[in-house]
Amino acid sequence: MSGGWNTVESDAGVFTYLLEGLGAKGVQFEELFALDEDDLYRLSPVYGVIFLFKYLSGDDKAGKNSKQPEDGEYDFEAVENMFFAAQTIQNACGTQALLSVLLNQSDKLALGPHLTEFKDFTSGLPSDIRGECLSNSELIRTTHNSFARASPFVDETQRTATGDDDVYHFIAYTPVNGTLYELDGLAPAPISHGPCTLETFPSAVLPVLQRRIARYPTTEIRFNLIAMVQDPRINARAIGDMDTLQAEARKRDAWRWENALRRHNFVGFVGELAKEVTRAKLTAGESEYESWIEGAKARTKSQRETNRKRGIEE
């Protein structure tokens, strides 16, 4: 793998295991399918959310060349008392947004030795140098890239955005020192959105997200929102909630399977499979080939039904 940063998907399973790969414990991500305050409160404690969106055509990237952002206010003084890093490399914004929540909630979460050392080392540095430290961290880059979808056609280190490309970006929202902050590595400073605590975070962040989405045409639906929450298994173990523990075990098994698939390039396999199918069709003849296909479909359907039943019983 090259020394660059590859793109990762905005996916709860990817981000949860990315965190664990970096050594953090006791947290996971949950996808949010609606901007519903009650749903967010049900996930409490919610340490922050990560928002993926498409840049508007002609948008000034996070207001970098503006005196103030479109919503909220830049808080340049806050940088000294929180973790805020400038994004200095392409494709790193997903992991950077994740760390923007995690490292600002370090008093409530178990970071693990590597991230604790990284936070302590960068705590007195300006945001641009923090960004360089993040981009040059071998552990963070390697862990990030281990969740990138394999592609035999695109070298992400050479990818450049043109005016015709859809460009997407991750940012984070989290409460720090009694204030709701928007943390965007392309912005010159954290963006303050007013008073907020961990307890009031769901009701404080949703109006900010709604205003941001309202800037887009009503036909635009390409947004994704995931929340960093406490690992549900912690409370489930404490109260002996076996149903939740079993549900979470199934969820994590599915995440592990999906993450394993992301690491593999199946183009060669598909190519060889197509060759064999064509060879079998030419050898067996059209009628026998069709019979073979129908039999394979029936066996696949039967196997899926068996697996589904086993999953319910387990």
UniProtKB/TrEMBL annotation:
Enzyme class: hydrolase
GO cellular component: cytoplasm
InterPro entries tied to this protein: Papain-like_cys_pep_sf, Peptidase_C12_UCH, Peptidase_C12_UCH_sf, Ubiquitinyl_hydrolase_UCH37, UCH_C
UniProt xrefs under Pfam families: Peptidase_C12, UCH_C
Sequence ranges assigned to domain UCH catalytic in this UniProt record: 4-230
Catalysed conversion reaction: Thiol-dependent hydrolysis of ester, thioester, amide, peptide and isopeptide bonds formed by the C-terminal Gly of ubiquitin (a 76-residue protein attached to proteins as an intracellular targeting signal)
Domain of life: Eukaryota
Site (Transition state stabilizer): 87
Important for enzyme activity, annotated site positions: 184
Compositionally skewed regions (Basic and acidic residues) per UniProt: 302-314
Residues annotated as the enzyme's active site: 93 (nucleophile), 169 (proton donor)
Region entry Disordered, spans: 293-314
EC number: 3.4.19.12
Gene Ontology molecular function: cysteine-type deubiquitinase activity
Alphabetized UniProt keyword annotations: Hydrolase, Protease, Thiol protease, Ubl conjugation pathway
Gene Ontology biological process: protein deubiquitination; ubiquitin-dependent protein catabolic process
The keyword Protease is annotated on this UniProt entry: yes
Family to which the UniProt record says this protein belongs: Belongs to the peptidase C12 family.
Protein's name in the database: Ubiquitin carboxyl-terminal hydrolase
Species whose genome carries this gene: Trichodelitschia bisporula
